[in-house]
Amino acid sequence: MLQRTEIKDALQSKQIGQPINVRGWVRSRRGNKNVSFIALNDGSTIKTIQIVVDLEKFPEEQLKPVTTGACISATGILVESQGSGQAVEIQLTELVVYGTADVDQYPLQKKGLSMEYLRTIAHLRPRTNTFGAVFRIRHHMAMAIHTYFHEHGYFYFHTPLITASDCEGAGQMFQVTTKNLYNLKKTEDGKIDYSDDFFGKQTSLTVSGQLEGELGATALGKIYTFGPTFRAENSNTPRHLAEFWMIEPEVAFMDIDELMALEEDFIKFCVKWALDNCMDDLEFLNQYVDKGLIERLRSVIASDFVHLPYTEGIRILQEAIQNGHKFEFPCEWGDDLASEHERYLVEEHFKRPVIMTNYPKAIKAFYMKIDEQESGYNGKSGQTVQGTDVLFPQIGEIIGGSVREESYDKLMAEIEARHIPMKDMTWYLDTRKYGSCPHAGFGLGFERLMLFVTGMQNIRDVIPFPRTPKTAEF
Ligand code: 4AD
Ligand code: MG
Predict the structure, then answer these.
(1) pLDDT at 107 over 70
(2) Which of 186, 268, 310, 349 is least enclosed, having the fewest CB within 10 Å?
(3) How does 313-328 read in b/e, with b if 16+ C-beta sit within 10 Å?
């Protein structure tokens, strides 16, 4: 048998008149009593190649198993296409059917299936045009991220997935244990005794690689992580997963202005990478999923992100309320902004991405650097921190980052005020004890970036096998 040519290469081939072999899954078959046309896809591109079958050479009986979803090998002669839409097609000379797909049973026979239904068959949905496009783009985004950091001199630093510390302090951790849950050993005061557990103490899946990332940055200078992250937050929203991927760069000697510049430059690089490398897939998504997609991607690259202190953001939101705008949730100084507030600022007020800074200390994590300057609220200082959330159209928060508190005493004071168990944090505090340095970093939710780049509406549809409350299928 001839060596296989991938369909993306076959469609570009200039070897007219030469034999060629392609293999893939049948998207459709149509025709008349003389000729049959098979649209074949192998995942290398969103496009299909047309296989033209002369029914005098291939009786209908032999073509019967070639239905939507069947897997075949097609050998033939590459010819210039008669029809419009493609440059070349293949005139079939030899057919092998690898696997049939029963017309009455194969779930992807029908067109126009809903996203909700496709989620129930996530094991097959990569074979649809939409999910093929999404997962090819997902690959390219991962390559963009590694390329960006590698080219800028960052080291890819692998942080653990199993940990005994809670980076975000939000108590959203999945426990990791080998203990017999039916017969839990308790201490005298009724607490679970972890001393005989696998790690000899209570451990969980990480909610962020940042703390260990800081250990890397304060030695190697510039690092990034890119790995799975777990949060047991019971948020059934189109923006939350229980298992998602996060990218976390951490940089020694970086201040807040440099941090914001990095956030903006990095995200624009990724979006531009999609436009440069994924146009076929983006054009499909632009046509069938979100008509404003490509324009939105271009506009983000072209616009300067707004730098907006939290206090100023609250003022704008309250002004909007006074002018009659209705929000579901309150937004007084000190409140955490809801997605509706973030989207108002980005989509209606500024009409471009916003980096919000200088948040109230109380709504942010313990490690953020406390602002020395006036917070602009009640005239008191020391109430805000150098956090930077990047807010995006359609998405809301896509990045959360900050300058880190480098002062041992100030950090200790926060840890004590928040009752963070110290025994698990000594290794982290050593970075502030020995050669402490100013540093900063951020976390980008990979699936939030994917939502933006694909125009998909639900985060469950940009990761192959989503994990959300009450679902861990596949
Ligand atoms: O804002 P977060 O909680 O920040 C951190 O975890 C920091 N330790 C990051 C750092 O500074 N190194 O999370 C960072 C980003 C969010 O902006 C969001 O994009 C994404 O992670 N994210 C989620 N994505 C999907 N599902 C969830 N449940 C998410 N929670 C956060
Ligand atoms: Mg956040």
Answers:
(1) yes
(2) 186
(3) bbeebeebeeeeeeee
